[in-house]
Structures are given as C-alpha cells and as structure tokens.
Amino acid sequence: MRVIVLYASRYGSTKGIAEFIAEKLRQRGVQAEARSVDAAPDPGDYDAVVIGSAVYMGHWMKEAVEFVRRNRTALTGMPVWLFSSGPLELGPEIASIDDPKLEPEEISGFLEAIHPRGHRVFFGALDPGKLGFMHRTLRKLPAARAILPEGDFRDWNNIEAWAESIAHALATQPVAPA
C-alpha cells in the first residue's frame, strides 16, 4: 500500500504535521511519504492520498486548492483524507477544535467533489522568526499579537490518533485497483 501525504505549508507547521503523519503510517506498516503539493506528484501513482494545508483567513493555501482541483478525477476514485492546520487557539465563540466554524471555506466543495473519507482540523504553530515581512509587520499591532499568539499548539497525540485511524482504515478496507 503506497500512500502520499501532501501538504501546502507557508512556515513549516503544516509540513511538520504531514511528515509526522507519514512517519506514523510507516510505523503501522504503510509505505508512506510526505511531499509538498508544489512537487506536483501524480496521485494515480499511489493507493491513497492525505492532503493538508495551512489555513489563512478561513481558506486553504492556493497551491493546495489548485492541486485538488487539478487532480479531482484521480482523487475521486481513491481513498483520500484531508487536514487543515491553522487555528492557534480557540476563541470565545468556538468551544472545540471540531467546531464547524473552523472548517476552511473550500472543504465543503471538496467533500462534494472528491468524497474524502474525512477532514480534520489541527492546531498550528507560530514562530515569529519564520514569518515573512507582511506577517511580521502585522504582528507588531497589539491586537494581532493577541489573536496570533506565539508558540507550538499542535496536539501530537490527536494527530497520531488520526494517522492511526487512517492506517487502520487502509488495513481493513481493501483499496480497489486504479
């Protein structure tokens, strides 16, 4: 079973999640690799695909959206899981990481178009030293620092449990040949 874990990551947090998922899949006996969507791999070369993107202002990164749209036909015929990395913490109007308000805008269209087996939102990380000029400038504003706290908020136990559920699904549900 060959699985590719694809990611679109601006500052490395989402890439770290993708690499962690691929490693957990390998530990469960799945041949898995993590690669950027920019590498433009052919999903048809794999038995299953996991795709994740950093989320900014409620949207997946353009590169990830374009990858899904460009490969819609191939992705529709195979097991696919999606993940989003973005919130750094829960706000007063959001009670849990599973709150539908955290779902990026593109996900509902992806659910309809490619029928993924699941979508999960994970907390991200913010290292001010890795930020680009625009985000560094934005974080100088007190209000921005309040809503963009510094730190690593990724819940590795939650991510590991999700990766293990994917490995279990792949082991118990045979994949139809392409």
TrEMBL record:
<dbReference type="InterPro" id="IPR029039">
    <property type="entry name" value="Flavoprotein-like_sf"/>
</dbReference>
<protein>
    <submittedName>
        <fullName>Protoporphyrinogen oxidase</fullName>
    </submittedName>
</protein>
<dbReference type="InterPro" id="IPR001226">
    <property type="entry name" value="Flavodoxin_CS"/>
</dbReference>
<feature type="domain" description="Flavodoxin-like">
    <location>
        <begin position="3"/>
        <end position="167"/>
    </location>
</feature>
<dbReference type="GO" id="GO:0006783">
    <property type="term" value="P:heme biosynthetic process"/>
</dbReference>
<dbReference type="InterPro" id="IPR052200">
    <property type="entry name" value="Protoporphyrinogen_IX_DH"/>
</dbReference>
<dbReference type="GO" id="GO:0070819">
    <property type="term" value="F:menaquinone-dependent protoporphyrinogen oxidase activity"/>
</dbReference>
<dbReference type="InterPro" id="IPR008254">
    <property type="entry name" value="Flavodoxin/NO_synth"/>
</dbReference>
<dbReference type="InterPro" id="IPR026816">
    <property type="entry name" value="Flavodoxin_dom"/>
</dbReference>
<dbReference type="Pfam" id="PF12724">
    <property type="entry name" value="Flavodoxin_5"/>
</dbReference>
<dbReference type="GO" id="GO:0010181">
    <property type="term" value="F:FMN binding"/>
</dbReference>
<dbReference type="GO" id="GO:0009055">
    <property type="term" value="F:electron transfer activity"/>
</dbReference>
